[in-house]
Write a structure and sequence with these properties.
Layout (H helix, E strand, L loop, with lengths): L2 H8 L7 H7 L11 E4 L1 H7 L3 H11 L6 E7 L2 E6 L1 H15 L13 E5 L14 H16 L3 E5 L7 H13 L2 H23 L3 H15 L3 H25 L17 H9 L3 E4 L2 E4 L9 E4 L7 H16 L3 E7 L3 H13 L8 E6 L2 E3 L14 H19 L6 H18 L7 E3 L1 H4 L7 H18 L12 H11 L1 H10 L4 H20 L8 H25 L8
Parallel strand pairs: 4-5, 4-9, 9-10, 11-12
Antiparallel strand pairs: 1-3, 2-3, 6-7, 7-8
The protein binds arginine (ARG).
Arginine binds next to helix 12 and strand 9.
Length: 561
Amino acid sequence: MDYKKYIAEKIKVEGVGTDEIYELIALPPNTEMGDYALPCFKLAKILRKSPVMIAEELKNALAPDEIVSEISAVNGYLNFKINKNGFVRATLDKILSEKDRFGAGEEGKGKTICIDYSSINIAKPFHIGHLSTTVLGGALYRIFNYLGYKTVGINHLGDYGTQFGKLISAYKRWGDKETVEKGGIRALNELYVRFHQEAEDHPEYDDEARAYFKRIETGDEECLELFKWFKALTLKDVQKIYDMLDIHFDSYAGESFYSDKMQPIVDELIQKGLLTESRGAQVVDLEEYGMPPCIILKSDGSSLYATRDMAAAAYRKKEYDFDKCLYVVAYQQNLHFKQFFKVLELMGKEWSKDLVHVAYGMVSLEEGTMSTRKGNVVFLEDVIGKCIEKAYTIIDEKNPNLDDKMGVAQKVGVGAVIFGALYNNKIKDIVFSYDKVLNFDGETSVYVQYTCARANSVLQKGGVPTSFELPTLTAEEIELVKSLSVFPETVRAAAEKYEPSFIARYAVDVAQKFNKFYFDCKILAAEDERTKNFRLALTNATLQALKNAFALLGIGIPEKM
Ligand code: ARG
């Protein structure tokens, strides 16, 4: 049961909707005051009365019932106490009966969400900068699915541009088949880096590269074959990482896919009188909207990133008829998205309002950042590998006799990388630290995983009860159940704000409350059978909720640790 909703529906304020009331209702820091509170300060502005008076009047208009046992007005807050027994019973019954559907829903039925994420560049390293888009997108994909939406995961490959001409030039000059075949992305990247170094003294290499790119475009067989081969090698290489992170796509239609789909966009722009010439290029002027012009065609007639993105958006609308199309891309590209969204709007595409740039912050390693051209990149594969290795060392130290230590280290290491990228509000820049993400006592995935192992072990010893009666409840139990209960609304908030971090925080909060309960209330040695049975059921429900939360984030939970 959603108590917040129940309370919001009880409160009637003229001119303020139930949804707004719902948004305002919060959990008071001190449970002595109540289980939920409506701060009346925002209402004071609307109603032109003091918060104290509003709280008082609302209190007088409301009567307690079997769910809300007490209502009080204190210092501008309207406080509600919930009938604890009913609440605990209802929450645990819900979790234990809905199991892995606890928190799920059907509200997205019939709606489609396209999610453009990861969107790697062919022949370039899959580096730590791609971590956020990959795991954020993957989590959003699962979250929307969980709420009944049809989700379409799209890897909008960066597989178009002169860099492929450069690569062909470099490969033909210095490369050999075997090395590249074996080395994959790393070998391709070395060629690319070398090209940039040597082209500094040989500007003619750049002309050659441009010519090769033209040949890819015009369908020259040899160039096209090489390009396809680079692409296949890259995808094969990154698949290893996608497998580890449990990431899937429904489409790999990248930039080159749209090379023959841009003309209709250009034609329409001309027809609608939106294209103007600027220094030989064809652009859409956006001065009126406080933005630099959006370049559609360069002076040599070639297309740009934005042109391809416009063709892609139109294609996705036609192909999937999306209700929303999300672009999980770093905030560095804010302007790009604002520009082409605006141009589509100016073209009269009413669906342009459904395009959303889900921007996120930068990830850097403690050691420093990277640049593809210079070659000093941090490969994501190496970061994950190192995390698994470190996890193994810690596990081996803590529990040398554990079965399948490597399997556990995989889940812990990979989980730490994912969780490290998902725990903070997505727009924040993060500095990735191995010690931080693998801290067993921190706000980390391994802390949550360890808590699950603890719960598992309790259940193994005490058994999973099939039914339970309520004992006299302790404060720790009630706090834990309260934390557990907010999962459904947390999932919805995460979807609405495109913020998987809400779910990560939920998991840490539940784990912390569980551990407090675990240390303060004896489970297996409880004072009587009824209490023991209840505590086992509570442990089971906690494990279920944490499993559901971690499944949405794409993190595995080892049975034992
Ligand atoms: N490949 C691009 C990059 O690495 C990201 C593409 C994002 N998606 C898009 N539709 N523009 O910067």
